């Protein structure tokens, strides 16, 4: 039986602008998806994922090799499709089909923009591989997990799977059709409080909405995108120098620009502002927006309380430097 | 006895950016400052301004020609200093000192960014002049009132006094050290709901704060300013074409950019967002920010209610096309 964890991530700067060639800065956080894998004697794949707020359901490998979930409960299928595809790809990669019991647990809200689906894919593949007694290079692991995301979603940025695999802080630079990721060494401990609310829009819809604005009034949107790019570059410098105050100022500006792009919500704005008023050095929505998460640069409990008072939920997070790791193997 | 009114104004697009050479679009609203003037037999100037939320106080013209308020109550002096200076300048301009009773009444919150001080200056001068039986050209009136604002504040944009004098909608183009104002003909009725809250920062402080950001990270702030400039130009086109929907979209983006500049507040954002959720075509803070006013492009009573529920006060406003006018003279 093997237990593996993989971290979630937040975007410090640059979401949405990264779609238009600007850099982004992502940070793996010490909140994890845990996957425990135990080989079975039969060829079934059973998934228990109560902590993903999904009913534990069981999925069977058919004789022809397909994995089919034995339920038609839409949301569950959708979340489990990452697990299903991860197992399929791992089986293909090692050309070996072994039935397995998977238990999945999350310390993060699922689908809130913290990269949980990528962490699920990474941890599932690694747990499966390890339980079978194999090994996998991290680059290969990240590649396979990215493939899972692309297969399930149609398209996906490699950011989330890279963060879940390697951890740390990465400077993401789109380069033509590919993406370069450069590890960044922070000059200071980054204290984050993450506030989250239910999402009302999908990433796909939000990206498409910004795209429509970009197409219809490029001369308005283009400078906003470029300004976010400069913020990300300055944010990286501030991070390396350990200038938390400047990081906060840049977060505040970045948030306003995301608001200008139309991806914020009333509740996100409220959490962002109460965090500042309660003493955070800066705050912004993180990820695609449309609900979901915000981050506040602080570790003050007043900020946690203030966010909770708006009706948001709170996670206190720090940097994860390890990426995915095996935490037990016996 | 003469009664004169002068309208307030809102900025539809471009506040703050106008300081950096970009255009702005201002609209006079059908909410007024009323000044009633009645010549006295003595040389006193008595000001009754209960509706400005000021105690009625009396001001005396000393023998040497100065007007000195007989109170040291700071806020009152500050608001009345516009009246005092307006009377002084009118006296100088016509080279005639006549004691006068002035009664001032406001339909707008004072000091919320709606240009009430300019409207007070314009209406006071016109009422005084008319009561003395003189006449004054509107261009001269606007010039004198602008002088009042500059004398009281140290510096002032000519926008508010121009709007209070001429009414309508003006496209404001900074040109070197001067400002060109071009009347704009709207292609449609502009329905506005104005929400307001107490201001926590002064215009002067907010302009200085944006200037510091501009100086310290020009490459971040400059594109924001330029984007606001494009929004104002597009907003003018949309207004002329009567495209209310586009006007709303542009307001929303403009608001986010003002938020990025750091001049919004939690309560302004809240009013701005509830207005959108309640069905406004668009909404933004208006004026310098730091509390004060927001506008929503709508006449829906749901939007009024929604703003009131956040704790804000509401004014329903339309376009004023007349500027300052004499409404009774007997």
Describe this structure as you would to a colleague.
The structure is a homodimer of 330-residue chains. Chain A has 330 residues and is an alpha+beta fold. Chain A folds into two domains: 2-183 and 320-329, Ribosomal Protein S5, domain 2 (2-Layer Sandwich), CATH 3.30.230.10; 192-317, Alpha-Beta Plaits, CATH 3.30.70.890. In chain A, 42% of the residues lie in helices and 26% in strands. Chain A is built from nine helices and 13 strands. The first copy, chain A, has helices at residues 74-94, 116-131, 138-153, 159-166, 203-216, 218-241, 244-261, 266-277, 301-309, and strands at residues 2-13, 24-39, 45-48, 57-61, 67-69, 100-106, 169-175, 178-184, 192-197, 283-286, 292-297, 313-317, 325-329. In chain A, strands 1, 2, 3, 4, 5, 6, 7, 8 and 13 form a nine-stranded mixed beta sheet that branches. In chain A, a hairpin with a 2-residue loop joins strand 7 and strand 8. In chain A, helix 1 packs across helix 3, helix 3 (138-153) packs antiparallel against helix 4 and helix 8 (266-277) packs antiparallel against helix 9. Chain A binds chain B through residues 213, 217, 219-221, 223-224, 226-227, 230-231, 234, 249-250, 252-262, 264-266, 269-270, 273-274, 277, and chain B through 213, 217, 219-221, 223-224, 226-227, 230-231, 234, 249-250, 252-262, 264-266, 269-270, 273-274, 277. Chains A, B: Its cofactor is Mg(2+). Chains A, B: Homodimer. Chains A, B: This is Mevalonate kinase. Chains A, B: Belongs to the GHMP kinase family. Mevalonate kinase subfamily. Chains A, B: GO terms for molecular function: ATP binding; magnesium ion binding; mevalonate kinase activity.
């Amino acid at each position: 039986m093997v237990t593996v964890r993989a971290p979630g991530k937040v975007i410090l700067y640059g979401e949405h602008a990264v779609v238009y060639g600007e850099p982004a800065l992502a940070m793996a956080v010490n909140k994890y998806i845990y996957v425990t894998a135990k080989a079975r004697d039969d060829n079934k794949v059973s998934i228990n994922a109560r902590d993903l707020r999904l009913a534990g359901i069981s999925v069977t490998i058919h004789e022809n090799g397909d994995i089919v979930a034995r339920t038609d409960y839409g949301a569950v299928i959708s979340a489990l499709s990452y697990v299903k595809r991860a197992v399929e790809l791992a089986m293909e990669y090692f050309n070996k089909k072994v039935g397995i019991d998977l238990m999945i647990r999350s310390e993060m809200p699922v689908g809130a923009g913290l990269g949980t689906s990528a962490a699920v894919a990474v941890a599932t593949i690694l747990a499966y591989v390890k339980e079978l007694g194999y090994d996998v290079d991290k680059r290969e692991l990240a590649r396979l997990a990215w493939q899972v995301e692309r297969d399930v979603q149609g398209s996906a940025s490699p950011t989330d799977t890279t963060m879940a695999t390697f951890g740390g802080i990465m400077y993401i630079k789109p380069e033509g059709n590919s993406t370069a990721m450069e590890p960044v060494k922070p000059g200071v401990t980054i204290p984050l409080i993450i506030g989250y609310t239910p999402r009302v829009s999908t990433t796909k819809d939000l990206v498409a909405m910004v795209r429509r604005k970009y197409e219809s009034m490029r001369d308005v949107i283009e400078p906003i995108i470029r300004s976010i790019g400069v913020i990300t570059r300055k944010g990286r410098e501030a991070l390396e120098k350990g200038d938390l105050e400047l990081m906060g100022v840049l977060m505040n500006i970045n948030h306003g620009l995301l608001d200008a792009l139309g991806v914020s919500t009333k509740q996100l704005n409220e959490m962002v502002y109460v965090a500042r008023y309660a003493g955070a050095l800066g705050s912004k929505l993180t990820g695609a927006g449309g609900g979901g998460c915000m981050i506040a640069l602080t570790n003050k409990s007043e900020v946690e309380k203030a966010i909770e008072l708006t009706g948001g939920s709170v996670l206190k997070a720090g940097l994860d430097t390890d990426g995915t790791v095996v935490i037990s193997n016996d």
